[in-house]
Amino acid sequence: ARPIVAIVGRPNVGKSTVFNRIIGDRLAIVEDKPGITRDRIYGVGEWMGTSFSVIDTGGIEIDGQDQMLRSIRMQAELAIEEADAIVFMVDAKAGMTGSDTEVAQILYRAQKPVILAVNKVDNLKRQDDIYEFYSLGFGDPIGISGAHGIGIGDLLEAVAQKL
Ligand code: GDP
Ligand code: MG
Hints:
Residues 3-163 form the EngA-type G domain. It comes from Paenibacillus ginsengarvi. With 163 residues, the protein is an alpha/beta fold. The protein has one domain (4-162): Rossmann fold (3-Layer(aba) Sandwich). It has four helices and nine strands, in the order E-H-E-E-E-E-E-H-E-H-E-E-H. The protein has helices spanning 15-23, 68-82, 98-107, 152-162; strands at 4-8, 27-28, 36-37, 42-47, 50-56, 61-62, 85-91, 114-119, 142-143. The protein has a seven-stranded mixed sheet with strand order 2-4-5-1-7-8-9, sandwiched between helices. The chain has a two-stranded antiparallel sheet with strand order 3-6. Strand 4 and strand 5 (50-56) form a beta hairpin. Helix 2 runs parallel beside helix 3. The longest helix is centred in the middle third of the chain and has 15 residues, at 68-82. The model has no long low-confidence stretch (mean pLDDT 92). Bound molecules: guanosine-5'-diphosphate and magnesium ion (MG).
């Protein structure tokens, strides 16, 4: 079976945009678990001959989960359970938020590699905005732009090294 890479982060950081960049048209159909809708959020990614399954955890719908924070936590916990490596995504435009810290708290407990991706680094000027995220404690942040397709190769390279 392919290794599993989960993309985790608060809403609106660009998880689905980057997920679509990574999988292209390699969307996979999976069956939903009782109480959890996971349809349309699995795909296949490839980097230098290594293929892996990708999960956009933001698309996971959990029955009865209406509060955002509870939902983010559940998604992060599911990712820790299922994934071999986790891409923790944050947003350079918005900067660090309390929800990012919440996600980090959960990921500290993961006995899995975590790669920190700072999305929305659309131009060189914004590259400086990645540094504040060092304080999350997941090592070197990788600046990417899902919208413009910048840094996706660097991210996949870092992920592939951890698989
Ligand atoms: P998700 O909630 O984490 O899945 O985030 P989405 O992929 O739905 O993106 C949220 C918003 O951010 C959308 O309006 C996207 O167009 C925008 N977005 C995603 N990636 C980028 C990026 O690299 N740069 C910029 N400027 N906007 C982005
Ligand atoms: Mg999404």
